[in-house]
Amino acid sequence: MLEVDILAVVPELLEGPFSHSILHRAEEKGLLKVTVTDLRQFGHGRHKQIDDYAFGGGAGMVIQPQPLADAILQMRGDRAYDEVIYLTPDGKRFTQSDANQLSLKGRILMICGHYKGIDERIREKYVTREISIGDYVLSGGELAAAVVTDAIGRLIPGVLSDETSALTDSFQDNLLAPPVYTRPAEWEGMKVPDILLSGHQARIEQWRYEQALQRTKERRPDLLEEDE
Q: Largest CB tally within 10 Å, which of 72, 108, 162, 201?
């Protein structure tokens, strides 16, 4: 079973993604356990403060190191994390390869960034991997944590009803997925390619590979460059 702990400033944002669909079924099967913890539980003072102004001035607040350290140590307990991940715009861009690697771990902690980010000393002391889900900025890391958890969780054996489905997704082999069709065979004058109706599986797989390669060259040639 993969355990994913998420440390969030706005945990309510994660209620929906983990209550339905594939991730919910994965938890019901005992294959995945997701625990969301409110960082404010570890805040200080009457107002449970977790942030303060940045040294050196400038707009925006920074999450303080002590509440984060207290949370990490308490959540970790007697068992260390395989990865402590910080979701941040300046992290490494998340890829299918990263999802594959993380799906093999046993226990992961994700720290959701907020405001202007977290104190750098936490990144130096505790964080083992920094991830960005794209070149844009969100209000917080909670939605990014949901994206990463979904990408990881669906790869765990037994989560999907057809385990080969995850292996044929886009990006698994640095190729985009080929076109897909379903019934009816003709719709509004548009026909499904004859090869897919032929029943010749070897030729179908070759056609799918060629289509995937062509689509990748047209839409994401950078993926082919990475594979060289």
A: 108
Report CA 190 to chain centroid distance, whole Å.
36
pLDDT of 164 above 60: no
Locate all alpha helices (DSSP H) within the chain, ordered by sequence. 21-28, 65-76, 96-103, 120-125, 142-153, 164-167, 201-219, 221-226
Superfamily of domain 2-153: SPOUT methyltransferase, trefoil knot domain (3.40.1280.10)
* Residue 57 zone, left/alpha/beta (φ > 0; ψ -120 to 50; rest): left
Class of domain 168-226: mainly alpha
User: Cis omega before residue 179 (within 30°)?
Assistant: no
Give the separation between CA 128 and CA 116, rounded to whole angstroms: 20
- Return d(Cα 215, Cα 211) in angstroms, integer: 6
Please work out, in degrees rounded to the nearest 5, the angle formed at the alpha carbon of residue 138 by the alpha carbons of 137 and 143.
135
Domain residue spans of the chain? 2-153, 168-226
Residue 165: Cβ within 10 Å count? 10
Which three-class secondary structure state does DSSP give residue 133? coil
pLDDT digits (tens, 9 = 90+) for 46-82: 899 999 999 999 889 999 999 999 999 999 998 999 9
